[in-house]
Amino acid sequence: MAQQIPISPDAVIDPEHSIHEVADGVAYRRLALVNVVFLGAPGAADREWVLVDTGIPGSRGAIMSTASERFGEGSRPGAIVLTHGHFDHVGALASLTEEWEVPVYAHLAEHRYLDGQDAYPPPDPTVGGGMMAALSPLFPNSPVDVSPSLHVLQPDGKLPVLPEWRVVETPGHSPGHISLWRESDRTLVAGDAVITTAQESAYAVLTQEPELHGPPQYFTPDWDAAERSVQKLVPLRPERIVSGHGPALAGKEFRQSLALLARDFRAVAVPAHGRYVADHSGVSA
Question: What is the set of domains in the chain, with CATH numbers?
Answer without folding.
Answer: 5-268 (3.60.15.10)
